[in-house]
C-alpha cells in the first residue's frame, strides 16, 4: 500500500507567520514537523508569507528533504526587523478562506496567534475544522522590534495577549515546547491545560566527538537579537585568562550584528571572535562537533532548538537560568546555569568547563546525550498525530 492509500492518512494545514527560508526557532520547528509528517505519509500543506509582495501562489517546495505544498501569501517587510515579513492583518481571513477551500484539511495547526494563525483559526472554526495551536511567542520576541514608547508597548502587548486568548479558546489543544513555557502561557493568558511537546530533534543528523579538543572553542548558534544577550557572552570572554586561548564562534545573523562587532572591537576581542553569519547544514554540524562548549545567554527561550542541537552533538551547555533553558541544562550535570546578564558568573562557568579534565568533560557530554534522548522527533510526531485525530496524548 502506498502512503497515499493509507486509511489513516491526514490532510494537515500548518499556518506559519514565519517559515523557510527564515531562520528562527518557530520556523525550524514548523519545517521539521511538516517534513516528519510527510515522511509518515500525510498530505501536508503550509500557509506562510512570501519573500516579497506578489500574488498568492501555491507550489511544491522541498523542506528538510520532503516535498510539500506551500501556499505563499503576499507579504511586506517589517522595517524595524532585518528580515521579518508579514501579511496585512485585514487580508488574513480572505487568504484563510481561499486556502481552506482549496485544501479542505482534516485539521489546522497554527504556529502563531498573530496574523496568519489568527485569521486561519477563525475561518477554520466557522467551518468546523479542528484546530491545534502552538505558541512560540514571548513578549521579548515582539517588543525588541517595535518603534513605540514603552507605555504604548505595554498596552499593545496586553491587547495582543487578550486576542491570543480568544484564538487559543478556539483550539482543540494548545501546545508549547516545554513545561515551563506552558506555565508561562497559562499565567499570561489565564488558560489551563496547555500541553508541553518538545520541538523534537533527529539525533541521527549530529556527530558527537568524544576526543579531546585541540582548541578551546565556545559556540553560539542563533539569531543576533537583543534578547539573545550575545553581548553578555562577549563581556564574559573578556574576563577569561588570556592563557586559555579561547575562541568564540558566533553563527547566525540579525539586527544586532553591527553592534556586536563594534563591542568586540571595544573589548579587544577581534582576534578571538568570529562572526560566521549563516552556515549550511554540513558546516553547522561540523561547528557543533568541533566546539568545546555551547553558551546561550538568552532570556526569552521557550525551548531553544540550538541548545537541543548542541546536546545532540555531545556538547556541555552553559545557559542563562531563564524561562525554559533550565529544562534542558541541569546545573552540574550536562553543564551549568548562570544568573541572567551576570557576565562575571558566566566567565567562572566557562573557566570550569574549559579547564575540566577530559574525563569530566566526557561526563557532561554523556549527560547531554542522555538528556536529549527524550526530545526525539518521533515522540513529537506521535503526540501531534494523536492531537490531530482527537486521541489521547501518549505518555
From TrEMBL:
Keywords, ordered alphabetically: Glycosyltransferase, Transferase
Keyword RNA-binding appears in the UniProt entry: no
Any Pfam family matching the protein: Glycos_transf_1
Domain Glycosyltransferase subfamily 4-like N-terminal positions: 23-202
Domain Glycosyl transferase family: 210-359
Alphabetized InterPro entries for the sequence: Glyco_trans_1, Glyco_trans_4-like_N, Glycosyltransferase_grp1
GO MF annotation, one: glycosyltransferase activity
GO biological process: carbohydrate derivative biosynthetic process
Keyword Transferase: yes
Classification via PANTHER family: SULFOQUINOVOSYL TRANSFERASE SQD2
Protein name: D-inositol 3-phosphate glycosyltransferase
Amino acid at each position: 500500500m502506498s502512503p497515499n492509500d493509507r486509511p489513516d492518512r491526514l490532510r494537515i494545514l500548518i499556518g506559519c507567520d514565519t517559515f523557510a527560508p527564515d531562520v528562527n526557532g518557530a520556523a525550524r520547528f514548523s519545517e521539521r514537523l511538516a517534513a516528519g509528517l510527510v515522511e509518515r505519509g500525510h498530505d501536508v500543506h503550509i500557509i506562510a508569507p512570501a519573500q516579497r509582495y506578489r500574488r498568492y501562489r501555491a507550489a511544491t517546495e522541498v523542506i528538510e528533504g520532503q516535498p510539500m505544498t506551500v501556499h505563499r501569501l503576499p507579504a511586506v517587510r517589517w522595517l524595524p526587523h532585518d528580515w521579518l515579513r508579514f501579511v496585512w492583518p485585514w487580508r488574513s481571513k480572505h487568504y484563510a478562506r481561499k486556502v481552506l477551500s482549496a485544501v479542505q484539511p482534516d485539521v489546522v495547526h497554527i504556529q502563531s496567534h498573530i496574523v496568519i494563525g489568527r485569521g486561519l483559526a477563525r475561518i477554520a472554526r466557522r467551518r468546523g475544522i479542528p484546530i491545534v495551536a502552538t505558541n512560540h511567542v514571548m513578549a521579548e520576541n515582539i517588543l525588541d522590534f517595535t518603534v513605540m514608547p514603552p507605555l504604548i508597548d505595554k498596552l499593545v502587548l496586553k491587547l495582543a495577549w487578550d486576542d491570543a486568548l480568544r484564538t487559543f479558546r478556539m483550539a482543540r489543544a494548545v501546545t508549547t515546547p516545554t513545561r515551563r513555557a506552558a506555565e508561562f502561557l497559562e499565567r499570561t493568558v489565564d488558560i489551563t491545560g496547555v500541553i508541553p511537546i518538545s520541538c523534537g530533534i533527529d539525533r541521527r543528523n549530529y556527530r558527537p566527538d568524544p576526543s579531546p579538543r585541540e582548541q578551546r572553542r565556545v559556540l553560539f548558534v542563533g539569531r543576533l537579537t537583543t534578547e539573545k544577550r550575545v553581548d553578555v557572552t562577549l563581556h564574559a570572554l573578556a574576563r577569561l585568562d588570556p592563557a586559555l586561548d579561547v575562541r568564540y564562534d558566533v553563527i547566525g545573523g540579525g539586527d544586532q550584528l553591527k553592534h556586536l562587532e563594534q563591542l568586540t572591537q571595544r573589548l579587544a576581542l577581534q582576534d578571538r571572535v568570529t562572526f560566521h553569519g549563516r552556515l549550511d547544514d554540513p558546516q553547522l554540524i561540523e561547528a557543533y562537533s568541533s566546539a568545546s562548549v555551547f553558551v546561550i545567554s538568552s532570556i526569552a527561550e521557550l525551548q531553544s532548538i540550538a541548545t537541543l542541537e548542541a546536546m545532540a552533538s555531545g556538547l556541555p551547555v552553559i545557559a542563562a537560568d531563564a524561562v525554559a533553558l533550565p529544562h534542558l541544562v541541569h546545573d552540574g550535570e550536562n553543564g551549568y546555569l548562570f544568573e541572567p546578564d551576570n557576565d562575571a558568573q558566566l566567565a567562572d562557568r566557562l573557566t570550569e568547563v574549559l579547564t575540566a579534565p577530559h574525563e569530566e568533560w566526557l561526563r557532561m557530554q554523556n549527560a547531554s546525550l542522555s538528556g536529549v534522548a527524550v526530545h526525539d522527533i518521533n515522540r513529537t510526531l506521535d503526540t501531534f498525530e494523536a492531537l490531530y485525530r482527537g486521541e489521547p496524548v501518549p505518555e
